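seq as requested:
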Amino acid sequence: MEFNEHAEHGKSAPFLTGRYVDKKEALEILETMNIRWNQRQIDWTAEPNSDGDRKWPWFLDDKGILRIDAGFIHRQFEGKQHEALQRWLSMNHNE
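C-alpha cells:
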C-alpha cells in the first residue's frame, strides 16, 4: 500500500498526530485495527527503493530509529474503508 495523501508544502496533513512510533509500535497499532501484519510486511513499508524513497514516510529520529506518525497508519486503512463504503452505498442504495 503506497502513501496516497499529499500535504501542501510547509503545512501538516490533517491526519498527522505528532505521535511518532517505531516499527514495533506500528505493528501494535495495526493489531488494534484487526490488521495482522508480520514483521516482514512492516519492514517492506520502510525499505528504500533505488532512489532512496520509502513506500511509507518513515524517517530516522536523532537516535537513528525509524519512526512514522501514528495517524498516517490509521489514515491508510481508514481511507480504504471509506472508499469501499462509498462504492457499496452507490451500488446498493442507488434509488
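The mean pLDDT is 86.
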